Amino acid sequence: xxxxxxxxxxxxxxxxxxxxxxxxxxxxxxxxxxxxxxxxxxxxxxxxxxxxxxxxxxxxxxxxxxxxxxxxxxxxxxxxxxxxxxxxxxxxxxxxxxxxxxxxxxxxxxxxxxxxxxxxxxxxxxxxxxxxxxxxxxxxxxxxxxxxxxxxxxxxxxxxxxxxxxxxxxxxxxxxxxxxxxxxxxxxxxxxxxxxxxxxxxxxxxxxxxxxxxxxxxxxxxxxxxxxxxxxxxxxxxxxxxxxxxxxxxxxxxxxxxxxxxxxxxxxxxxxxxxxxxxx
Length: 280
Description:
Layout: E1 9-15, E2 17-18, H1 20-33, E3 42-46, H2 58-65, E4 71-73, H3 84-87, E5 109-114, E6 117-125, H4 136-148, E7 154-159, H5 163-174, E8 180-184, E9 194-196, E10 200-203, E11 208-211, H6 220-229, E12 242-253, E13 259-270
Parallel strand pairs: 1-3, 2-11, 3-4, 6-7, 7-8, 8-10
Antiparallel strand pairs: 1-12, 5-6, 9-10, 11-12, 12-13
């Protein structure tokens, strides 16, 4: 019998960085189209780019909640919409990186109730090639030990630029009994999904959800102009009729917290905008 088919498992869907309206629409359509027998027990999505590519408005937070997403992770862009400071403490499904200084608004990890038990989710920022903030190493270890008092199922979103840093953190925290570690931030999905010893699902970057014909979700023209001229041109979310969904689906033993499988998701979603025909 395939262990991953055991009734003692929980199926977790993790979606890579959602970028703007195309990403939100694609995620809505993707979740809606999942067959009943394949529906995940818990859905996590990185949303730091969900509102026009930068940050998260309260309106979009509520919109994404309505799609059935259970937990939102983020990253360095979570503060880009100033209104985040007005609602982050009340947004009980949203997590900001744990290694911002003490006293920062929001929570770096949360424990969620599901029909199959509790899940702990932690968000953390890498430091290589990114703005230096608090070292994550001891902070994460402390959070893992606290969560283990309530549940063996622990998920970490490592939002980082450098692949080597993510791999190092993945191997280190896998040995501390973490169930799954998903890398985010680069918006480019890696093909290295695997189980780190002793039993931790891992991928260096889950990719992104957004416009397929784009530069990591943004318009090509402005992106290439910035490279050619070195002038910081405004970046806008690409507006195309085809979107992509990147992420992973993981099965975890609910009694031990050990990952049994991880499968990469890389699908295309056609976005069909309704046209209003004006009469008269």
